[in-house]
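INTERNAL AUDIT FORM
Audit reference: QA-55
Scope: verify that the stored structure record matches its stored sequence.
Auditor: D.O.
Record contents follow.
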Amino acid sequence: MRMAGRSHCVTALLLLYLAAAILFEQVIAAKSMPRAMFDANVLKDSMVQRINANPVAGWKAFMNPRFSNYTIGQFKYILGVKQTPPNAIVDIPVKTYIKSLKLPKEFDGRTAWSHCSSIGRILDQGHCGSCWAFGAVESLSDRFCIHFGINVSLSVNDLLACCGFMCGDGCDGGYPIFAWKYLVQNGVVTEECDPYFDQIGCAHPGCEPSYITPRCEKQCKANNQVWVEAKHFSINAYRINSDPHNIMAEVYQNGPVEVSFTVYEDFAHYKSGVYKHITGDELGGHAVKLIGWGTTEQGEDYWLLANQWNRGWGDDGYFKILRGANECGIEEDVVAGLPSPKNLILNFADVDGSADVA
């Protein structure tokens, strides 16, 4: 009984710590930018011209139609990664790989696991700061196919609406590692059972992205599915050591991972090439899915990532970012977990939690 009481106390203290962190972030965000700048358009012709005229930029910019009506304030809202308090992750294991593990010079999860349709999907988070949930659910969906041969699309809405305070603040942002802990403890239903709430978006002039986090209903929209039976779980939640070799090894052996990084103004203008920050102010933290890596003909190493801003943004929804220099913190906060066979009805006998890379 004493141990149980102590556990509850630790959990309560952690929740209070996270609440204080969220409040502190909101206060800082409110003071960090003048109102006039907050209301300015995030896209700027001058920024596009400056980047495209830079001979060493390494990437091309354009006036992305995805954000043609967005103010800086609206754009900041969809950057939903909150900085995790250091004390909250001391018990999270960090995965490392031996240096002798041989890895290919180029790797793309879409071709390595071509039978997994989820890896090639580009989704749209709409006007909700739910990137932290998308990165986790998309990666776990991919890993179910890689490890168990099951093509399944899992529900971002379940995680976003039902994780509650443990994950952060819903559409106002969250913590990727706690999203993975939710996937371990509570699992996540299929997308068919609980589809994403923001399918329409906000397009009319002057429209504010004031989406409220959806309610947790715990009831399938699909009549042929039962909530508890539609749950898919992760076995564990862990971080990956920030050395690029470890990140590459994790993706190569287990599938796509969720990564967080700092977004600057110029990132909204990305079209193609290997992104690195050139100009503009820091706007917030964003989470995406890392699916591979490679090197350009010019010898520049890059990571290959899938964003969730629809296919109209960037390179058909994807982007590349400089690899090996921790550009924008891309290698600092990499998280993942392995899929669990719980609730699965498998059509093959050999399920050992491993997968061969094609």
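Auditor finding: record pair retrieved intact. The first strand starts at residue 59 and ends at 61.
Action required: none
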